[in-house]
Each structure stands twice: as structure tokens, then as C-alpha cells.
């Protein structure tokens, strides 16, 4: 089976969603947002009233929700049990709870298996750009192109705050910066698949770059590596 897999990892606000979609569009590939999957399963746990302070309670229900991902880079999306959750998964309730849910090994095992199925299904159609935290290390360790996007804490908080203007989750740069720092610490110190850069990933600091610059640089790296 041929097909290209591009792994795009990095913390939130590093610009990886917009860059990943732009790269997928330019190369005619599918696009998978793995963070949306962790958010969707978190939304479902909240709906079900699962005690998110109890990892065993989360683990016991991890196999239940039925997630369906749309991998069109122009209209990516996720449903849980047939419900479109693209709005609510970006809200503060899910954002505040997602680190606790994504730290549970049973949740990760289930979602990683699902991600690997989606990647395999994309290969006959040309391949996929997969964005997340652990795609270069765990989900697709054999991906020929692995990029790790970073940006300064200020740039990340500024970008995410701008994205949230006019939504129910509107916030300030300072609040956003504190929330990101809290989630970064949780995500990078958890026992199961902590956020880390793959040894063979190329680190790209997007702080001084425009979105078009980032896409152009990733496309150049794909051409060089793949
Ligand atoms: O990229 P994002 O902010 O939408 O991700 C939401 C959360 O999901 C983030 O706090 C970490 C977690 N996550 C993860 O653990 N592994 C992934 N591959 C993607 C996201």
C-alpha cells in the first residue's frame, strides 16, 4: 500500500491545525485532528456524568462512545453516537476536562487504534496529514515526515485568544496563557504517552512566521523527505 503520512505534532496555539489543513489541501491528502477525538470522548464522558476525577470510572466507559471522523481538510468534523459535537468540543467545559480524560491509558489505546485505522484507510487514496501530540511517536512512528511545531507562550496564547473572539469561550490573553501552561504541564507529565517530540521530528518555531510561511516550509520538507 502506498500513500504519504505527515505527522504534525505540537502544543495548542502552535498553529498546527491551520498548517495541517493547509498542507493536506495543497497535497490533496486527508486530514485527521486527533485532539478533536480526545475532546469528543471528553464531551461524551461529561454528558454521561462520568466522574472525571476517577480514572477507573473513565477507563470503564472508554470503549462505549461511537466516534466518526470526517477527514476532509475543507470540512473536518466529528460525531459521537451520531451527534455533531464540533461546537461543544471547543467550549471551556471540554477544554478544562480533556487533559484528565486523555491521560487515561484505556482512552489512549482506543483512540490510537481508531487513528491507525483511519490512517490505513487513507493510504489507497494518497495519504493523510495527522495532527496531534503523539502522532510522530506513537500513532504513526513510521511516518516519513514528522514535524513538531512550537511557538512562544505569548504567541500561542495570542493566537488562541484571537480564534475564540465571538465564541462562548472568549477569553483574555493572560487567562489563556495560564490555561495553556496548566494543560502543557498535565499533558507532558502524564504517564501514558506524554507529549514529547519524536527523535526524528523536525522542529519548526512558528513564532515569527505567517501561516503561509509555515505551510510553504512544511511542503518543502515533505518534498525533501518523502
Ligand atoms: O490539540 P487540542 O488542544 O485540541 O488537544 C486537546 C487535548 O487532547 C490536549 O490537552 C491534549 C490531548 N491530546 C492528546 O493527549 N493526544 C493527542 N494526540 C491529541 C490531543
UniProtKB/TrEMBL annotation:
Residues 1-20 are annotated as: Disordered. It is found in: Cytoplasm. The keyword Cell cycle does not apply. One of its GO terms (cellular component) is cytoplasm. GO terms for biological process: pyrimidine nucleotide metabolic process. It is an enzyme of class 2 (transferase). One of its GO terms (molecular function) is dCMP kinase activity. Gene3D superfamilies: P-loop containing nucleotide triphosphate hydrolases (3.40.50.300). InterPro entries: Cytidylate_kin, Cytidylate_kinase_dom, P-loop_NTPase. It comes from the Bacteria. Pfam families: Cytidylate_kin. It catalyses: dCMP + ATP = dCDP + ADP; CMP + ATP = CDP + ADP. ATP binds at residues 10-18. Residues 6-223 form the Cytidylate kinase domain. Coiled coil: none annotated. Its main location: cytoplasm. Its EC number is 2.7.4.25. Keywords: ATP-binding, Cytoplasm, Kinase, Nucleotide-binding, Transferase. Belongs to the cytidylate kinase family. Type 1 subfamily. This is Cytidylate kinase.
